[in-house]
Amino acid sequence: MTPLPYAASINPANGETVGQYPFETPAQLDAALTRASAGFAVWRRTAVEQRAQKLIDLAQALRDSITPMAQMITLEMGKPITQARAEIEKCAQLCEWYAAHGPAMLLAEPVQVDNGQARIEYRPLGPILAVMPWNFPIWQVLRGAVPTLIAGNTYVLKHAPNVMGCAYLLRDAFQSAGFAEGLFEVINVDQQGVSNAIADPRIAAVTLTGSVRAGMAIGAQAGAALKKCVLELGGSDPFIVLNDADLEAAVQAAVIGRYQNTGQVCAAAKRLIVEQGVVEAFTARFVAATRQLIIGDPQSIETYVGPMARFDLRDELDQQVQDTLAEGATLLLGGGKVEGAGNYYQPTVLGDVTNQMTSFKQELFGPVASIITARDAEHALTLANDSEFGLTSTIFTADLERARQIANQLETGGVFINGYCASDPRVAFGGVKKSGFGRELSHFGVREFCNAQTVWLDRH
């Protein structure tokens, strides 16, 4: 099949076309990279306090455009409108947090040396190419862009083709906030265009949030060009519930952690690993709570589960569910596509899942939860680590010391005790194993694309 010469966004609630955006020519890509490079030459010399003020201005611009931007998110990828508005407000708060705390993260660090004075300076690298996904079309971008910009770099966004309308609205917000040309560029290119951008000497480094396959491809190309890259990839995150856990709190967290954003979250609670003493009670409560979720029109403020973003992804998810059932799992709720218009999938709960089944071994990117029984806490830990992924994990238990001991042995980039995973600017976010490498947010996100430069003044 001949590839389309444009990026298309299709409303997953009804199949109607939202927009078609022609791919840019090599000359247009070249012009964008020229602007990003020229912008970097000025931005890197701009006082960090002025950069911080621009982030405050961006926060206001985001709030000013929250209604059309949230509407575009809902139209292009089906996120329920209340969650779309919350995503944009979270982005505004992200800007304000880095405006307040980012400058201190870039201060030189003095180092004690025997003969003279030394310090570590944090210098920006240059234009950063960001290949971003559709599931949080504003947050995922700004989670990387804001710390990158406060550090003095410029940002070149290549967004997912089904959310290009969101990309252009975000560009408008940067312009409304007074960011100069070249500081935040949006490019709309095909795979060859991405490869050309990575190889271009004006691009200093690359960041990608996406699938393992995409991460391997982008990582290989960045490596061939000897450019640093940060990869935030898939996840099949374990959610451990031990016998002494507060079941009501655990169920509430598991429902949010699994079904928010229609389950299309890399750090979602996908594998619910429950100690056998409470698995029956937990399962009954979890199924009952899941049954109460409102699935429907994402434009309704009552909706919690909307349509999945793409029809092919729904088909893939359904095949994974059917394979898991054929392997011996029990269908406790849902288990299929919703009849009628739209790309809807029933909120689904699979019971009696083992580590040999599809929904345990693979990432299920949609509203499907798998419940796995653990003999004891040690077995729960073994099951949690029995995955090629290692993004985040959760433990529910009343014994905090035991929780810390388990956390020390979990092979994940983040561990959340008695709460579901949160992407918060105050703490680092990223994974291990096939979930990728590098970190976003906190001071790690600021320094990820900095040159840690040693400056040593010798005394003779």
Automatic annotation (TrEMBL):
Q: What InterPro entries does the record point to? A: Ald_DH/histidinol_DH, Ald_DH_C, Ald_DH_CS_CYS, Ald_DH_N, Aldehyde_DH_dom, ALDH_GabD1-like, GABD/Sad-like
Ranges where the Aldehyde dehydrogenase domain occurs: 8-455
GO MF entries: aldehyde dehydrogenase [NAD(P)+] activity; succinate-semialdehyde dehydrogenase (NAD+) activity
Q: Which Pfam families match?
A: Aldedh
Keywords, A to Z, come to: NADP, Oxidoreductase
Q: Which family does it belong to?
A: Belongs to the aldehyde dehydrogenase family.
Q: What is this protein called?
A: Aldehyde dehydrogenase family protein
Q: Which organism is it from?
A: Pseudomonas karstica
Q: What is the lineage of its organism?
A: Bacteria, Pseudomonadati, Pseudomonadota, Gammaproteobacteria, Pseudomonadales
